Amino acid sequence: MTLPQMDTTESTPTSATTTLVTEIKPASTSRLDKLEALIPKLSPSVTDDAATCLRHLASFTASVSATPYPPKKLAGVLILLHIDATGNLSLTLTTRSLRLRSHPGETALPGGRYEDSDTSVEATALREANEEIGLPLSDDSLFHLTTLPPFTSRTMLVVIPVVYLLTTPFEGTQKLLKPNPDEVDAIFHLPLKAFLGLDVDVDLSVSSPSPPPPKKRKTRSKSSKSILTHSYQDLIWLSDRLYRLHSFDAPDLPSPVEGLTADIIVSVALIGYYGMDEVTESKESGEGKLGFLRWAEGQLSWAEITRLALEATGEKGVRDQRTSKT
User: Fold this and answer.
1) Which range is most confident: 29-38, 93-102, 206-215?
2) Whole-model pTM?
3) Most buried of 6, 160, 245, 273, CB within 10 angstroms?
4) DSSP of 153-176, one letter per residue?
5) Side by side, which strands form the sheet with 257-258?
6) Contact criterion met (CB below 8 Å) for 57 and 146
């Protein structure tokens, strides 16, 4: 499989023989310039809100980390944005196959572990998306908006989200997206803005190789207006500190969007719609920007969690000691 060539002014490719993977370099202004030229050509026409979101994401630069990321602990996930029928931004999610040994039936972003043949974490995420959902990989249909700072999974993987915009009309690409039945039970798409916890209508579009599997949870009654419902649990995690596990759900979703996947998407939405990263969010408390309280009292930042993950040996999951739920 041939991967798109990465722009070396915006990321740090690593060869197959590299023993350590580091975070991206600061982005050049050329990315924003390219986006400005692209926006008028997008179809359907982009709303002002969506255009602002794209500009914020293209302008965002992750802080360069001096900490190397061992390949065996590294993963890349793809936030694939597209312009929906309303001119707003939606993203692609999957429901993991019940055949999988890890996290079966859970919602995920396309992605997976870094492999020696990958030239970068961007290449990792795109390769995995091609394998999982059949995403075509071509230079003229995918635009790299940004790469976020690292997050950490409950199995201590360092997870780096990469954000791409689908530049061709989504309807055509959607027909090409096919769930790999060994890995994915369903593909669905949700408005990015819905993850701010505001009342945003959800026009659900699901692709699955077979009827969705029965849900392992109580099904809510259907309503004419489908809005993502937010809930959370505060769990004790690393260093005996609380971690707020967020969950977004709606009656017809194949699976709720929870945990790390939800956290990553909320971060993308905050950067996009408000230009607010984790540092500015902590200073301003995200007041008025979200329809919920994102952080538990005393919760570690993702930078602190990642540092602990790199120091950890073996796998250590969340200790499920629920202290609150809304």
Assistant:
1) 29-38
2) 0.83
3) 160
4) -TT--EEEEEEEEE-S-HHHHHHH
5) 229-236, 242-249, 257-258
6) yes
